[in-house]
Design a protein that fits this description.
The protein is mainly α and 329 residues long. The protein has helices spanning 19-32, 44-47, 54-70, 88-97, 102-106, 109-116, 123-137, 151-168, 213-221, 239-252, 256-259, 266-292, 295-324, and strands spanning 6-11, 37-42, 79-82, 143-145, 176-178. The protein folds into two domains: 6-183 and 294-324, Rossmann fold (3-Layer(aba) Sandwich); 203-289, Tyrosyl-Transfer RNA Synthetase. The strands form two sheets. Strands 1-2-3 form a three-stranded parallel β-sheet. Strands 4-5 form a two-stranded parallel sheet. Strand 1 (6-11), helix 1 and strand 2 (37-42) form a beta-alpha-beta unit. The model has no long low-confidence stretch (mean pLDDT 96). The protein binds tryptophanyl-5'AMP.
């Protein structure tokens, strides 16, 4: 019998989900759903690491659950749940914090980026990657589909798993990141040197998955390019144009170089890209509107997902507790 791989990934309920989340991660999550045993999670505990409003967090968590179903995740074909519903994540995080080195956590570029501009830097923002390691390792995960920006966190997770196993005996599966060939790093339309992000920092540079056709067309039309009007893929020399080609390619199942074929001008590139994105998002938006009308059903499906997840996570955590030397209750 063929051994089916275990896949795990997560997404934070902070801000609205944007095109980078979809092209870099969610689309891949959907396509892996029938090939592997997939576990996907709305990581609400991670959202506590930055200042937040409690009512907004609750509503963003539910709405992200609906969005994950709208993009095509099917609770009958994967395990879909909210991290905070499975308490093993928080306890697992402590084991990870005690296995990760302070210096390793300090080197994480996301921590550096986020702490530099913040008024308040929580301890949780610093230990965030240890919680992420617990998320992944609790499910005996083989593969972690993520965008490029999460590669470093998955590398740290591997190091933690290897260290724990060598100190305390074989406990965790050592996972690997799965990064898509195109769409792994969608850049901001106004600042093509920065990744597109959920935060509200650059509303004109960020395409939201729920943006209407008019907004998408306007944002793409205003995207920063350069002045020579030649369309070819060169991320260093032409970052704005290359980002649009990456988005066009990822939205139509081609490489950015292939996507440039037959496009003669920046105007043409922008119209073609906006149309492709609008067409790709249209069915997702329609499905989201249907699901949003029935929050009780979403809650029911997420609770069932948490029950499935808890069974796997608690078995792994019991193994880790025993191996690390905690006295059985
Ligand atoms: P988050 O919530 O920031 O992003 C969710 C997923 O979207 C990808 N992504 C992008 N991909 C391409 N271009 C972009 N501009 C872009 N922006 C975001 C991210 O790479 C990610 O895959 N720490 C994680 C959440 C997490 C997690 C986990 C992920 C918590 N535990 C365990 C995997 C496994 C995060 O903040 O992702």
């Amino acid at each position: 019998m063929a051994v089916v791989a275990r896949v795990f990934s997560g997404i934070k309920p902070t801000g609205s989900i944007q095109l980078g989340n979809y092209l870099g991660a969610l689309r891949n999550w959907v396509s892996m759903q029938d090939e592997a045993d997939c576990v996907y999670c709305v990581v609400d505990l991670h959202a506590l690491t930055v200042p937040h409003d409690p009512a907004e967090l609750r509503s963003a968590t539910l709405s992200l659950g609906q969005m994950l179903m709208a993009v095509g995740l099917d609770p009958d074909r994967c395990t879909l749940f909210v991290q905070g519903h499975v308490r093993e994540h928080a306890e697992g995080a402590w084991l990870m914090e005690c296995t990760a080195a302070f210096g390793e956590l300090r080197r994480m570029t996301q921590f550096k980026d986020k702490s530099e501009s913040a008024d308040f830097v929580s301890g949780g923002l610093f230990t965030y990657p240890a919680l992420q390691a617990a998320d992944i390792l609790l499910y005996d995960t083989d593969q972690v589909p993520v965008g490029e920006d999460q590669r470093q966190h998955v590398e740290l997770t591997r190091d933690i798993a290897i260290r724990f196993n060598s100190r305390f005996g074989d406990t965790f599966v050592v996972p690997e990141a799965v990064i898509p060939p195109s769409g792994a790093r969608v850049m901001d339309l106004q600042h093509p040197d920065q990744k597109m992000s959920k935060s509200e920092d650059s509303p004109q540079g960020t395409i939201l998955v729920l943006d209407d056709a008019g907004d998408i067309e306007r944002k793409v039309k205003r995207a920063v390019t350069d002045s020579d009007n030649e369309v070819y893929f060169d991320p260093d020399g032409k970052p704005g144009v290359s980002n649009l080609l990456s988005i066009l390619g990822a939205s139509t199942g081609r490489s950015p170089v292939e996507a440039a074929t037959g496009i003669e001008s920046y105007g043409d590139l922008k119209t073609t890209t906006a149309d492709a994105v609008v067409e790709m998002l249209r069915p997702i938006q329609a499905r989201y509107r249907e699901l949003a009308a029935d929050p009780a059903e979403t809650g029911r499906l997420l609770a069932l997902g948490a029950d499935k997840a808890r069974q796997v996570a608690s078995a792994t955590l019991d193994r880790a507790r025993e191996n690390v030397g905690l006295l059985a209750p």
